[in-house]
Design brief:
61% of the residues lie in helices and 7% in strands. By secondary structure, the protein is mostly helical. It has a domain at 2-340. The strands form 5 sheets. It has a two-stranded antiparallel sheet. A two-stranded antiparallel sheet has the order 2-3. The protein has a two-stranded antiparallel sheet with strand order 4-6. Strand 2 and strand 3 form a beta hairpin. Helix 9 packs across helix 10, helix 12 (276-294) runs antiparallel to helix 16 and helix 20 crosses helix 21. The longest helix has 32 residues, at 50-81. It is globular and about 60 Å long. The relative contact order is 0.12. The model is unreliable at 1-45 and 394-403 (pLDDT under 50). It binds NADPH dihydro-nicotinamide-adenine-dinucleotide phosphate. NADPH dihydro-nicotinamide-adenine-dinucleotide phosphate is lined by residues 142, 301-304, 359, 363, 366, 410, 412-413, 418, 422-423, 425-426, 429, 454, 457, 461, 465, 468-469, 472.
């Protein structure tokens, strides 16, 4: 991590523990999420009410921390024991009751089974090795509210290719011995339960690390350990040079997901031979991952990285929620034999590929216009831009006068896709996920769960980002909103 503004780690740690100068103030990410200290209205910082604070900082975190691991296990159980039908699951709970039913379901998985533990830890070690050893150009994240500039090695695409190649080489050798990586599918409940616990432990370690040994000044405690565990105490934690969020989000979550897609498609093949739906679903997701890793340096400038601290929300989410909910379409497909035929298969693959290209182009327009300082062409024309000024410490809670007040300039693109709506690029992302869900047919809702989740996540994100950018850019963001009034769907929302 390269820091433009440096403070000694000891001081940052002290402040974090005391919760004094930064305590709440340090919680720049919490505030921008609208869940911490307050919200901005018409450029004014408004203190969060007591009830809202209790809800956002205690009730909601407790709810999510307790509910999410159960949802993860329920998804697996629905796929593995209820033919992917929530009706069958509902019948089960009606018969045995919710508490007894959940207890029985949890008793069917082995937390810490040797197979799961060795695979997860071995896979993590492999990913960390790739993360630190594969070469790549240097990429920088956006300057943080505390003036730090995170530095990365942009090797995500290489890591992804090596991981996929390793899977198929390993599959070849396992098959020679009568084994298969689909053992992961056969014991998927054990894997999910084990990774749930491992990710929990990691999040607690990160909580203490952020308090006692922060890597940068973008850290701090809110004074509420529960909220700090949920939201995190550090924005960019690093351990022995390993960036933890790159590991949890990209090298674990986003790499496990394609591995699972391929393993589940292979399971379908082992059960039924070639069935087009399983491979169309897998193909479209693989295109999505390939785009993701090709563009990974751009991901380092997104909300997940620049706003969300390394806590339960993002780290546990990426390590457990992604392999479960995000991979749930493929999980469902593994035991379903749905024949699409060549016309539908090709139509889905072509339209899905087009959607992801639109999403990529939109992301790229934003990146290009900033990388060239507005000296590029957007759809063949000079881009329409707003040169937006903002102040370091724009959360206006940054109290050290020596470190705050530096004014910076950034570009807001007002033409291209960014002139249609402020987050138009979410639409093709949603359409693609619908296309890879459609091979699941219309018998059950499970294959559409990820799509429905994404609708909620991305809609919520448009509000989060508006709030964050409103705070950061003030009148410049207001001007952008005036010129581009729609959040996501032009003319509608
Ligand atoms: P965005 O790409 O929407 O980036 C938001 C940031 O971009 C803002 O905070 C602001 O940051 C900057 N910005 C906003 N408007 C403009 C503009 N007009 N011109 C220039 N810069 C602007 O972030 P997301 O993280 O939401 O999405 C990134 C990608 O990830 C998308 O492709 C999205 O579809 C995908 N995604 C996928 C998810 C999934 O679970 N599958 C979840 C979320 C996203 P700054 O402070 O730098 O100005």
């Amino acid at each position: 991590m390269q820091q433009r503004v440096t403070r000694s780690k000891t001081r940052a740690a002290k402040e974090a523990t005391n919760g004094t100068s930064n305590g709440a103030a340090n919680d720049t990410n919490g505030t921008t999420n609208g869940v911490a200290n307050g919200v901005h209205k018409a450029g004014k910082h408004v203190e969060e009410g007591l009830l809202a604070r209790l809800f956002n900082r205690t009730i909601m975190p407790i709810f999510l921390i307790t509910i999410c691991p159960n949802v993860v296990i329920l998804l697996w159980y629905t796929a593995a024991h209820c033919q992917g039908s929530f009706m069958v699951l509902g019948d089960y709970f009606t018969r045995v009751g919710v508490i007894a039913g959940m207890t029985k379901i949890w008793s069917q998985v082995q937390i810490g089974s040797p197979l799961a533990v060795y695979t997860i830890l071995g896979y993590s070690a492999f990913q960390i090795l790739l993360q630190v050893s594969l070469p790549g150009p240097t990429a920088y994240g956006p300057i943080t509210p505390k003036g730090n500039v995170p530095k990365y090695t942009d090797n995500g695409f290489r890591c992804y290719l090596v991981t996929c190649a390793a899977l198929w080489i390993m599959t070849y050798f396992l098959k020679q011995r009568g084994l298969s990586p689909t053992v992961v599918y056969d014991h998927f409940g054990d894997f999910l339960a084990t990774v749930t616990v491992i990710a929990f432990v990691l999040c607690w370690l990160l909580y203490f690390k952020g308090i006692f040994m922060p890597s940068t000044t973008d850290c701090g405690s809110s004074g509420n350990p529960l909220f700090d565990f949920y939201w995190g105490t550090e924005l960019y934690p690093r351990v022995l040079g390993v960036d933890i969020k790159v590991f949890t989000n990209c090298r674990f979550g986003m790499t496990v997901w394609p591995i699972l897609c391929q393993i589940f498609a292979l399971k379908n093949y082992e059960l039924y031979g070639f069935i087009d739906s399983a491979w169309v679903c897998c193909f479209l997701q693989m295109i999505y991952f390939t785009k993701f890793f090709w563009w990974e340096a751009g991901y380092m400038k997104t909300i997940d990285i620049m706003l969300d601290r390394a806590g339960f929300y993002i780290c546990w989410g990426c390590m457990t929620w992604v392999p479960s909910l995000y991979a749930s379409v493929s999980l469902y497909m593994a035991e379903h034999r749905i024949v699409l035929g060549p016309v539908i298969s090709i139509a889905l693959m072509v339209l899905g590929s087009f959607s992801i290209m639109v999403n990529y182009w939109a992301d790229k327009q934003k990146q290009d216009v900033r990388a060239t300082n507005g000296e590029c062409l957007i759809w063949g024309k000079k881009p329409d831009i707003i040169r937006a000024k903002y102040t370091i410490g724009y959360d206006d809670l940054h109290r050290d006068p020596k470190e705050s007040g530096e004014t910076k300039e950034s570009i807001l693109l007002v033409s291209g896709y960014w002139g249609w709506a402020r987050h138009f690029h979410y639409i093709p992302e949603l359409i693609l996920s619908l296309f890879w869900s459609l091979p699941g047919g219309f018998t059950n809702i499970m294959p559409y769960l990820y799509f429905l989740w994404l609708c909620i996540l991305l809609t919520h994100r448009t509000f989060r980002d508006d709030e964050k950018c409103g705070k950061k850019y003030g009148k410049y963001w207001a001007e952008y909103r005036k010129r581009v009034p729609y959040k996501m769907i032009p003319g509608i929302f």
